[in-house]
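Translate sequence into structure tokens.
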Amino acid sequence: MQAFDLMGKVAIVTGSTRGIGRSIAQHLSEAGAKVTISSRKQSACDEVAQAIRSNGGEAIAVAANISAKNQLENLVAATRAQWGQIDILVCNAASNPYYGPMAGLSDEAFHKILQNNIVSNLWLANMVLPEMARRRDGVVIIVSSIGGLKGSATLGAYGISKAADMQLARNLAVEWGAFNIRVNCIAPGLVKTDFARALWENAQLLEKTESATPLRRIGDPDDIGGIAVFLASRAGAFITGQTIVADGGITITGG
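Result follows.
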């Protein structure tokens, strides 16, 4: 048995038209999985799915706003209609509409962060977990953040949501482990994505971050994609309820 082989598996990856989500989708496809690409814009989903197909993979594109439960239900239904089942769920899409101290955080912004970064992940998990349980096989991966491991004067609300994702993974791992379902988190550090552009485009902040990081660089989306393959494959078969930190070592330095 090939430890990282995902042939015959079907995966949904939210927020997979760019950045970390796109890298995860591409890596899963290269390992043999059939992948449903999803984000808010259908045209962006179509482009990524076509790129995967052009590279010899199998992919469909289903647009969905993670804040709309009916759109997530359609995402799951369309994947089942195409391939009959869902083996791997990657909850990557997230929101961070506010940067600053929590004293200035509006109720609307806080609710959006909690809804999109926590509640929507639970919605999706509950849509696919019963099916996985019937087959006694399945994997859920939530993309969290090192922001959930430490305090922040500017990203506090986002960090709260990402800490909650780690606990969500632990809870689901306990509840569904008897059905051979594994649930884990990946917690990236600063990665060069559009989502984190405000952090790495600031030259002073970037230099400070890189100097505090043992590997002396920030991450690239492809630093994360392979971790998802590991967690989804036989290689990660005895790992559940865990958070794998991928941050170049910055959290071990206190940076």
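Note: The CA atoms of residues 43 and 63 lie 8 Å apart.
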